[in-house]
Amino acid sequence: MRKLGRNEPCWCGSGKKYKHCHLAFDSKLEGYFYQGAEVPPREIIKNQEQIDKIKESAKINIAVLDYVAEHIHAGVSTAEIDKWVYDVTTKMGGIPAPLNYQGFPKSVCTSINNVVCHGIPSPDEIVKDGDIINVDASTILNGYFSDSSRMFCIGDVSPEKKRLVEVTKQSLQVGLEQVKPWGFLGDMGQAVNDFAMENGYSVVREIGGHGIGLEFHEEPWVSYVSKRGTEMMMVPGMIFTIEPMINMGKADVFTDEKNGWTVYTSDGKPSAQWEIQVLVTEDGYEIISY
């Protein structure tokens, strides 16, 4: 990082002088760096203007999932869910971030039962009574990104599936409690993993959360099988997702060879995921999208 003079404009783009903006922040970060901590690069630290614009994007993302929550039911196809997402997003001025992202063909991911993530909507895939489904929506508004997902229990869902969905949701709160400035992502990761294992479940290792805001996927990659005191330091201005994928059975997964996207549990047992987008603040966190 280039050393700035005290009276130079701050690197974050706030327009403030360095001494009135990130000088003290950088000094503190430098101290942790020399102690061996993994510190975030400047480009993923958001200023207030960027945070405000990311929140505007998130308003659309939340509205999309609220619409899905009001309309999803047994008998609907996942292609219909995809159309809802596209229509609501574009009507509000946004763009569905998944659409054509690295070749992904649809506007949303719909993952049912033993699908861990990245399920591709299809007119042939009908949501049935007893299913659990994750709907993962991501939005671009004026170049700023938001991302979150929710689980839906359709009709008469078995107690075992309901418990998986609820424990997975609870794991987010357990993880959130560890999101503190100058702590480590591993603090959150271990808390989530310990909670899932205590409840008899396993956590997917290969797929995690990610930084987001100015790009769809930024640093850091966020693991939920990490150890306390490890991984990147959490600092004010960082935005990332918390989205553990928790399996009823073993943690092993595989990706569909035909479409290259859809991830399944190797043992065929159900998986659940809730996703939120979180901003690290001076005294804790703020949920941006849910």
Compile the SSE list and pairings.
Layout: H1 23-34, H2 48-71, H3 78-91, E1 95-96, E2 109-112, E3 115-117, E4 132-141, E5 144-153, H4 159-176, H5 185-198, E6 202-203, E7 209-211, E8 218-222, E9 239-242, E10 245-247, E11 253-255, E12 263-265, E13 271-273, E14 276-280, E15 285-289
**Count of runs of 4 or more consecutive helical residues:** 5
Mean pLDDT: 97
Q: In whole angstroms, how far apart are the ends? A: 34 Å
Major sheet summary line:
4 strands, antiparallel
Percent of residues in helical segments?
25-40%
SS-derived structural category:
alpha+beta
Unreliable segments of 5+ consecutive residues: none
Rg result: 20 Å
From the spread of the alpha carbons, the general shape counts as: globular
Residue fraction in strands:
15-25%
Number of strands: 15
**Helix-strand sequence:** HHHEEEEEHHEEEEEEEEEE
Word description of this protein:
The chain has 290 residues and is an alpha+beta fold. 28% of the residues lie in helices and 22% in strands. The chain has five helices and 15 strands. The strands form five sheets. Strands 1, 2, 4 and 5 form a four-stranded antiparallel beta sheet that branches. It is globular, with a radius of gyration of 20 Å. The model has no long low-confidence stretch (mean pLDDT 97).
Give a quick set of tags describing it.
290 residues; four-stranded antiparallel beta sheet; three-stranded antiparallel beta sheet; 5 helices; 28% helix; globular
Structure summarized in a few sentences:
The chain is an alpha+beta fold and 290 residues long. Helices cover 28% and strands 22% of the residues.
